[in-house]
UniProtKB/TrEMBL annotation:
Key words, A-Z: 2Fe-2S, Iron, Iron-sulfur, Metal-binding
Domain FAD-binding FR-type: 10-112
Highest taxon, organism lineage: Bacteria
SUPFAM superfamilies in the cross-refs: Ferredoxin reductase-like, C-terminal NADP-linked domain (SSF52343), Riboflavin synthase domain-like (SSF63380)
Record protein name field: Ferredoxin reductase
PANTHER family: NADH OXIDOREDUCTASE HCR, PROTEIN RFBI
Coiled coil: none
Cofactor or coenzyme needed: FAD
Keyword Iron-sulfur: yes
Originating organism: Paractinoplanes globisporus
InterPro entries membership: Cbr1-like_FAD-bd_dom, FAD-bd_FR_type, Flavoprot_Pyr_Nucl_cyt_Rdtase, FNR_nucleotide-bd, MRET, OxRdtase_FAD/NAD-bd, Riboflavin_synthase-like_b-brl
Keyword Zinc annotated: no
Amino acid sequence: MARAALSGRLTWRAGTLVEARPETPTARTLVLDVPDWPGHLPGQHVDVRLTAPDGYRAQRSYSIASAWQEGGKVELTIQRLDDGEVSPYLTDVLEVGDQIELRGPVGGWFVWREAQQHPVLLLAGGSGVVPLMAMVRARGIARAKQPFRMIYSARTPEDVLYREELPRHVRDDLGFDLFLNFTRKAPEGSPNPPKRIDVPTINTHGWPPDFTPDCYVCGPTTFVETAADILVALGHDPKRIRTERFGGTS
């Protein structure tokens, strides 16, 4: 069974784009129908491969934004990198009905499972919110009782992914709290000036370390290193801090 499951994850599958929606001026969510999709855990990712007419191939990894669903659709939220080989095609060119190749799901460490009983702290920098959003969605579908807190750092209000959906989770679920931190421009009238995440931010809006929360940190390398160091300095157990990082800036 384990060998068969591993083989399935290593298999390239053709995913057909059935829906696309803009999230920000530079980010787009792709809803893909992937035949024989084995299901996934929130926090996992897929490899995406594009093949040019001349045979040239480019491959990148993207976090899955949707909650787990066996045989269901897979959602990816892609942030365009102007000098990228893959993301500009996915955000600006790919049309409904087109196909791309996917392989996965990949990853077993940076995941949240419903069986985990501890409170959860999600720390997101920029598009690092994508796998954390899968966790929020999965918790909602499962009607899990573990309380979640998310600290989400973005450049400006216009750069916030899922900016309509996230407040709905706050309104509909008393166990989910959200704090938006802005590094370049805060909303008009906000009492919080733009700044990078720091000790007071995490100390005020995260969980106390004696609550022994499961902490998930995702974003650019500098964001992840800073946030993880702050958590440890505040007394959180390093074994309960899971990180995932990528290139770029927050």
